[in-house]
Amino acid sequence: xxxxxxxxxxxxxxxxxxxxxxxxxxxxxxxxxxxxxxxxxxxxxxxxxxxxxxxxxxxxxxxxxxxxxxxxxxxxxxxxxxxxxxxxxxxxxxxxxxxxxxxxxxxxxxxxxxxxxxxxxxxxxxxxxxxxxxxxxxxxxxxxxxxxxxxxxxxxxxxxxxxxxxxxxxxxxxxxxxxxxxxxxxxxxxxxxxxxxxxxxxxxxxxxxxxxxxxxxxxxxxxxxxxxxxxxxxxxxxxxxxxxxxxxxxxxxxxxxxxxxxxxxxxxxxxxxxxxxxxxxxxxxxxxxxxxxxxxxxxxxxxxxxxxxxxxxxxxxxxxxxxxxxxxxxxxxxxxxxxxxxxxxxxxxxxxxxxxxxxxxxxxxxxxxxxxxxxxxxxxxxxxxxxxxxxxxxxxxxxxxxxxxx
Length: 406
Hints:
The protein is α/β, with parallel strands linked by helices. It contains 12 helices and 14 strands.
């Protein structure tokens, strides 16, 4: 039965099997005009073929946008100013891409007069939540079509059968098909499904695409110097780079030295546990280096407050609340804290290990060697003052101890 209530839909379209089937399914079930949107956020695959596929299916309005710089500048960098990490391990590579895609999809819907948007996220995952929370925040009256929550095409075999029955061209890659569900952008690549659904089974080496195994990394360590301004990396080895080029460069060198592999079981927002593997070489370097430059430029209590708030901030991103007022409020505070986070960090990369071996800030360092020294400090610090400090802080402990004893 054709649904006539929607005349035009903006579809997040990759050109792959799922979204190609969705495109035809929308035409067949909604009888609507469709606008396709393909985002290049550094996934490492050619996006232009999506144009030809969409045209072959009768689409007139086709958007293919290079969003790599915006992705890193306005989403990845702000997140790393917060040192965000979900459940102690996950660097939020998929999570942080979704608000950007939602933003651009809503912009396209507004530009083309579409009443609805559509996406290919399944009803079991987090992405449906992230896309839709973002869309509703940016356009409260938008209608959302999520085919995976409507149709009965619940397996790859059914999708392929539908594609064949409707003449949908699907390019089958040569060689052995990957058993994994993968998502990639300039920050990371993720792997789920297939053999990984057994959390006891070690990932096969052939799965990894961005990094060498640590045991096969170079026998000679590499040193890397990063320059920070207001909490963001602006140069590598003294050479200024744009945000996207910073991350791309760190991905390359990190991957060469076996940096950034992760195997975890995470708690999805929809309630289930999910096992996934991730490669985030550049992000792993960024997190380590950012904490190093903050260690000498941030006030102690500011740094500790940021650490207390970080898990909440990370959960907001993971659960799709990038555009929520509480995330925006936290970001304002985080960004204000970065005014003095300027300087250089030197790192050592060796066979999967990443070490900070130097940090300095000529303008904003709070590290004072004259005070911290174990040698003669020439009166910079009176050690006798510590006695009163300790006794005052021990007062409540002494009172409680006397009460227990008496």
